[in-house]
Amino acid sequence: MLRGGQRCAHAPSALAPRVPRAPLVRRLSAFCALATTVLVALSLPAVSVAHAQPDTLTQRLPVIEAVSVRISRDGDRSLLDLPFAITRLNPDSLRPQLRRVGVGDLLFAVPGVQVQSRNNPTQDARIAVRGFGARSAFGVRGVKVLRDGIPLSLPDGQTPMDWLDLETVGTVEAIRGTAAALYGNAAGGVLDFRTVESASVPSELRARFWDGGSARRAQLMGSGTIVPAGRPERTWLASITHTRTNGPRAFAEQEATSGFARLEGTFRNTRLKLLASGFDMPLAQNPGALTAAELAEDVRQADPLSISRNAGKTVRHGQVGVVAEQGSADNGLAAAAWVGARDLDNPLPFAVVTVDRRNMGLWIRGTSSHVWQGFTGRMSAGIDIQSVNDERRNFENCFAQAVSERCPTTSDRGALRVDQREVVQSEGAYVRYELGIPRKLEASVALRWDQIRFDVDDRFVTATNLDDSGEEGQIAVNPMFGLTWRVRPSLSVYTNFSSAFETPTITELTVQGDGSAGLNASLKPQRTRTLETGVRGIVGTRTWLDVAVFEARTDDELIPFEVPGAPGRRAFRNAGRTSRRGLEASVRTLLGRGDAGIAYTASRFRFDEYEVAGTQFGGNAVPGVPVHQANAWITARRGDWFATLDVVSASSVTVNDAATERADGFAAVGVRAGADIQLDRVVLSPMLGIENALDARYASAVLVNATRGRFYEPAPPRTIFAGFRITAR
């Protein structure tokens, strides 16, 4: 989906090449003309639906009855039976041989999802669903993120994404909208990254390498299926990936290794799935954000303060989990349990932060179905339990500083400033009932209860530093009602009303607006109510259509701002009321010479009531979200070869609550060509591509309400990359 950074509005017109500020329709028309030229130039023969490769075709334009999602929390369900704005896609089938630099490559074709690539090794991409999450300073906020059904999100709603192994993701399932009635603390939606299927042969080995000049990645993955005599089959998968970068900006080096393993099988009529992930990043530098003038001058430079304070981080992260299932999707029981650990050392301009984290969780759900007088009923219920225990310490950042009482040495770690234990626990329970009504109608109603507790134990208490220990509890009850109508076997219309809540994270609660410690008792959770209508399915024989319109109203929206005198330190406050109105549409179609698609989002997000220190911001746009955003792509094929062209486009966006600063819109073009050449039991897959082919200068992410005018995180300039994959059985 769109990587939603924008050009800086203050960049002088002398910048070259400057993307014209043409209307979005004109940009898309130009894209279509260019794409058509590429297709004609390739002179590819027509590809009929009947003769297209079956596995590729069903991934790109599936037979809907056979396509199911598991993100509904009720086992496998057809997309057309669910009253949500929901998307399931295989990223590689849409845009072959993806480089997978960031999570935005996997979410490219999901409308309503904005991914701001920060191009900063210490910062995750900023993911926003319908604007929720655009305010995040680090990690992902406002969106529930899972891997194979196990949460990556912590109970307070924060999600570190650096340890998600992108190379092993096969499909993505996304709910856009307030899904709290099913998942709890997730205002904007749900993203579930599903691991690629294991090979159907006993063993398959794949090696992949790509080089983008300033970044290199190598991956080795093995998988297979074993069928012991007289026993159920077992599948396995193991992967290790190493990444090394030295840019594209100054002070942006990174070295990281990730691993993932999965083992599946059946034991006494119970399907078991064992999952293990590991991540080690010994080096990651933080180039920080730029001012308008710096962005106009050179997108490769870094914030001088980040360099002078040696900002960066090192991380070690691991998690293991098990998923067990019995019965069927209509009558069955499923459960999952997991434990994880994370060690973080994070020098920032205002402090050196260390966190020793332990987390665990459990969910259980059951489903039962019945038929009565021609009506089909389906009841599902479940519980979710999570906890996270952080040992947090903050030290004075003394890197290259003069010796003083606070900095007895010139190393990066000086006097202790914070020493506390932070515990967050959540419990949730939900029940959902679906009723199949004659005339192809299906009604769904759900109710969820959640309780989240925050506990801070201050261990740094002195005569001049009082005890800031405290606890806070927040409870929410959220209903959901939905209705689906099968207009045709392959087309459905749906509507739903739902509500959601989003708590502050423990980090947000423990940072006061004046920089003092202790829990911020004035910070409340935000609550959202959404009304939504949509249509999705197959139109004709070759086109998949997905359209949704919605209106959401949020009370006490959580808004970030930087603490004065502490660069990089973010605090939060509640806005009075905001409203969101939007349109989301995606179209995918098979052409005679390949396939193409577009995902478009229109967003009108406004503060209705919002006052800070006597200043009224009511009527201003919610910062960080463009009004228009679109991603389009077209792929041409000839035999084993392919060529793909894609365009990422966004309108301008405000970067602060007062709407006094704005980043211009942009359009960025990428091209890629490659092949899958079959040689007996070996498949060779070379690839060559160009990102930002027109060398547009723009900010790929914006930092909302930043101080020192540092709102802009620049996109890389034109980048040529090459890749190679070899698969052997």
Structure commentary:
It contains 7 helices and 41 strands. The protein is mostly beta strands and 729 residues long. Strand 24 and strand 25 (543-555) form a beta hairpin. It is globular and about 75 Å long. It has a domain at 7-205 and 423-728: TonB-dependent receptor, beta-barrel domain (Maltoporin, Chain A). The protein has a 22-stranded antiparallel β-barrel. The protein has a 5-stranded mixed beta sheet with strand order 4-9-10-7-8. The protein has a 3-stranded antiparallel beta sheet with strand order 1-35-34. The protein starts with 6 loop residues before the first strand and ends with a strand.
Q: Care to give the gist of this entry?
A:
This protein is mainly beta and 729 residues long. It contains 7 helices and 41 strands. Residues 1-66 have low confidence and may be disordered.
